[in-house]
Amino acid sequence: MSVLDLPDLALECILEKVPPEGLCHLASVCSSLRERCMSDHLWERHLKQKWGGIIGAAAYREWQWHIALRKDSRLFNQAKQKGLVSYLSRLWPVSVIVGPNLGAGDKGNNLPPIDSIMYWYLALESGKFWFPAQVYNRENGHVGFMLSCYDAELSYDPRTDTFHARYPPHGRMAVAIETGVTWDRLRAPLVDTPAHDLHISECFELP
């Protein structure tokens, strides 16, 4: 009896307890497990658990825009998928990613769909995707930024489990980049409006 002989509900309960790297391993076993292990409902839980505190509506829109660009790009299947395989190979053996029975020309077929939650999760983990969020205490202790919260674009560094933060320019100040930003200093934007957008209010209209 194999794991695939289990009732669907029992198998789903098992897969829900498997961590992301385990799902990637199982996805290379056979086509049936591949389909199950790449399903959105499994990866949505992992996405919310690890990234839910700093991923907001603005980050989701940025990802949708990113997907649209990649789908329109003729070079996506060659360059971008190759880059994802390269990232995954640093976490798990290439044989796990492409599968033991796949040739070099089939690597792209074993990658998750670009519009899947699994792909978004792996893109965040790779650090290749920059997304909007907010950073507490900019420059981590600089007296001019204490008790502050600044808009920034973030990129994850999987080697250090920290982030690079790219702050927008203010006045004559150039774009500032901070490295080593820890998870506890980050949050999703509470107000989904860029700081420099003009707000049109009806509060001061005359009757």
From TrEMBL:
SMART domains: FBOX (SM00256). InterPro entries: F-box-like_dom_sf, F-box_dom. SUPFAM superfamilies: F-box domain. Coiled coil: none annotated. Residues 1-46 form the F-box domain. PROSITE patterns: FBOX. PANTHER family: ESTS AU081301(E20138), F-BOX DOMAIN-CONTAINING PROTEIN. This is F-Box. It comes from Ipomoea batatas (Sweet potato).
